[in-house]
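Supplementary notes for students who missed Thursday's class. We covered one full example, reproduced here. Read the sequence, then the structure, then the short commentary at the end.
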Amino acid sequence: MSTAASETHPAATAAPGWMVHHPLVAFFAIAFAGSWAMGIPMALSSGFNLFPLPDLAFILMFILGIYTGPFLGALIVTRAVEGRAGIRRLFRRAVQWQVGLQWYLAALFSFLLI
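Structure (token representation):
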């Protein structure tokens, strides 16, 4: 890699080589670790009662735990592979409306009916 390329994209050179060459494996490893980082306090609070949590806090931590790992994995791997431009594209695609508002609301709140 030339000196000019490392000056224009300093974050791309800081990424581990295995993450750039195996982004899917890196994503799943980070997603797994991030989900467990939220799941361990929940397990300790319910199973061993080391961190007593109210029911609402437990439910919120459970929902956050589901999304924390994959979100972190997507951010870290996208930043390592594509840099800042990739992060901008990722967020732009995440907020781009593809269907009507009623379907987004149905996806977000249908679990309450179940």
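Commentary. Residues 31 and 71 are 7 Å apart (CA to CA). The two ends are 54 Å apart (CA to CA). If anything here is unclear, bring it to office hours.
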